[in-house]
Amino acid sequence: MTVLLYDRDAYMTDFIASVFSCEPIKYSGKDAFDIVLDETAFFPEQGGQDSDSGTITPLSSCDDNTSADPGQAVNVLHVSIKAGIIHHICDKPISEGTRVKGDICWEQRFDRMQQHSGEHLVSGTVHRFFGADNVGFHLSAREVTLDFNTTFEEKDIAFIEDTVNRAIYENFETHIFFPSDEELKTLDYRSKKELTGQVRIVEYPGYDMCACCAPHVKRTGEIGSIRIVAAEHFKGGTRMWIECGKRSLISARTQLSDARAISRITSAKISEIVPAVEKISDALKDARFKLVKFERDSILALADEIRAEQNPILWIDACDQDNLRLGVNTLVSGTDGYCSAFCGNDNDGYRFIIASSSKDCRELANKMKTRFEIRGGGSPDMVQGTIKATRGDIAVFYTEVGID
Ligand SMILES: [Zn+2]
Known about the structure:
Elements: E1 3-4, H1 5-8, E2 14-27, E3 30-37, E4 39-40, E5 54-58, E6 74-82, E7 85-90, E8 99-104, H2 106-130, E9 134-139, E10 144-148, H3 154-170, E11 175-177, H4 181-185, E12 201-204, E13 208-211, E14 226-234, E15 237-244, H5 245-266, H6 273-306, E16 313-316, H7 321-332, E17 339-345, E18 349-355, H8 361-371, E19 373-378, E20 382-388, H9 391-400
Helix pairs in contact: 2-3, 5-6, 6-7
This protein binds zinc ion.
Zinc ion (ZN) binds at residues 116, 120, 202, 212, 214, 216.
C-alpha cells in the first residue's frame, strides 16, 4: 500500500520518496512508465475528479543507465489507484530504489480543492434543504458538474448559491477525521458508495458531512466564492455546473468583457444592453419580414412573366425556400411541362425545385444525377435538393434533354 501523503496534508506541494517499482507501459498509444513510490502526495483520479500532475525528479544516480539522470524532472502524465497502490504514469523511467523528489502542480491542485470543497457545500445544502442526493460528480480542467436526483426552480438555485456563499463568508474550518466503526454507525453522513476499511469523513459543520478521500481547503473562505452557472434537466433530475474561486473570477471577467463589447456595439450602458439587444432583434425580425415579402412579390412577378412557356425555368440569386416553392407552384398553374426553379450562384451551387402537373419529375432528376452532383429527392409531382453546377451547364443539359 502506498502511503497517501495528501490524505493528511492537502497543502503538501513537494515530498521525498523512494521508487518501489518502474514498469514500461503504453499510455495513450505512446511509450510511458508506471512508477510506484513508497509514499506520494499525488492525488489519483477517483470519485469523478481528475488526477494531479507534476514532476518526479531523481535525487541520486543509479547503476541502471536507462533511468532519468539526477536532477532531470520526469513528467507525471496521469495518476491512478488500484488496490491501495498509487501508479504514476510518467514519460521517463526512474530505477527502483532511487530517492526522488515529487512536485505537484499546486495551481491545478488548489483550483481543484476550491471546486471540490464548493461541491461539498452545494451537495450538503441540497441534501439538507431539498432532501435530494448528489448522484454524479465530475471535476476536470474544463468544467465541474453535479448531478442531483431532483429538479429545482430558479429561486431554489439562487437560494443554494446564497447559502453556500454564506458558508464561504463564515470562513469556518473543514473538519476531517477518521471515526471508529462504532462512531461511524452514529454519524449521519453522505456517501456515494459502500465503504470498506477506514472511512475518512469530511465535515463542514452545519452544511455537510460526507465520506471523501480527496484534498479539501482548510477553511471555507479559501473557496473564494461560488456561482451556479447553469442547471439543466438531466435523467429525470438536474445537472448543475458550478465555478468556484479563480474559475469564477476568470469567467465573470470574460462575461463582463463580452458585456462591454455589446455595450459598445449597441451604444447602451451595460445595465441596458438587454433591452438594446431586444430592440435590434425586433428590428431584424421586422426587416426580415419585409425582405421575405419583397422576395415573394419579385418571384411571383418573375414567375408570372414566364408561366406561359412550356418548360419554364426560374433563376433567383437568393430567397426563402417557401418563396421558391411559391414561385414553382405559380409556374405549374400555367403549364403541364416541367417547371424548375434554381436559387444560388455558380460558385456555391444551387437549391432547386422541379414540379409538374403531368410529368414524372423524378425521371428528369435521375437524368440530372448522371451529369451533376445532386442531393435531394421527392415524388413524381415534385423533386427538390441541391446541385453543384453552373447556370450555363444546367441550361445546356436542359437543351440536350429537350425541355428548354
Ligand atoms: Zn471531498
